[in-house]
Amino acid sequence: MGWLGPAELEALKLSLRVSFWATLVTLPLGIFVAYALARWRFPGRQVLNGLVHLPLILPPVVTGYLLLLTFGIQGPLGKLLAEIGIVVAFRWTGAALAAGIMAFPLMVRAIRLSIEAVDPKLEQAGATLGASRLFVFATVTLPVILPGVIAGAILAFAKAMGEFGATITFVSNIPGQTQTLPSAVYAFLQVPGGEAAATRLVVISIVVAMSALLLSEFIGRRVAARVAGS
User: Fold this and answer.
1) How far apart are CA 156 and CA 150, in angstroms?
2) Other CB atoms closer than 10 Å to residue 205's CB: what's the count?
3) Packing angle between helix 6-39 and helix 45-57, nearest 10 degrees?
4) pTM confidence score
5) Which of 57, 53, 51, 157 has its CA nearest to residue 99?
6) How many whole angstroms from its chain centre is CA 11?
7) Which helix (H) or strand (E) holds 84?
8) Torsion angles phi and psi, residue 135, rounded to 5
């Protein structure tokens, strides 16, 4: 990475950090929500489905503004968190929150499609043997849907790496603190002579995104082949 300047390298490291934690923290919730939407019938199911996919429809700036109203220092949740020493607005943790919310619909959709492809009779067979619902999910459903889980996680990571609108609205564009790759590209394009640095970061973004997609396909196929052969 010697061809990257200190500011560019810092933006890359921060983006990787933000994307990693955004994916890791939202993955358990993504699996639960995907399973609920795929298997359960309950009042408000369509409302939940709409809320999950809302970040895909709303302009990212609107999502970022809603996060600022909710998790800002004067926001209802932000004020409660601040009282216990947790501040997410204008912090890298806020960037991870914004990126995780924007990537969540892609993760849920990939996992939900995998769950819906599983024959419910397999799960019912485990239940008839006296196994708990959680045990059936862990031993029957999860191994089968693992390719979808991995694909969803990697796609969410790639989406988080490219998130810009919600992030810059919620946590601003502070070098070394909240300036991710897209924010750095935007910042470099605003100053004379910054095109070269912006181009380098664009190349990095393309490489990371393509690598994530190819890795998702590769791991998904390997896990699917292993599950089919077991």
Assistant:
1) 10
2) 19
3) 160
4) 0.87
5) 157
6) 18
7) none
8) -65, -40
What confidence tens digit (pLDDT) does each residue in 162-199 have? 899 999 999 998 888 899 999 999 999 998 888 988 99
Which three-class secondary structure state does DSSP give residue 41?
coil
pLDDT at 227 > cutoff 70 = no
CB distance 180 to 174 below 8 Å: no
Eight-state DSSP code of residue 6: H
Residues found in the chain: 230
Tens digits of residue pLDDT in 25-46? 999 999 999 999 999 888 999 9
Euclidean distance between CA atoms 145 and 220, whole angstroms: 10
Structure-block tokens of residue 150: 């991995």
In 3D space, the residue among 158, 172, 137 whose CA is nearest the CA of residue 207 turns out to be 158
Amino acid letter for position 110: A
What contacts 124, CB < 8 A, 6 or more positions away? Answer: none
Neighbours of 79 (CB within 10 A): 12
Work out the widest C-alpha separation in the chain, in whole angstroms: 69
Q: Which residues contact 107 (CB under 8 A, 6 or more apart)?
A: 23, 26, 27, 30, 34, 152, 153, 155, 156
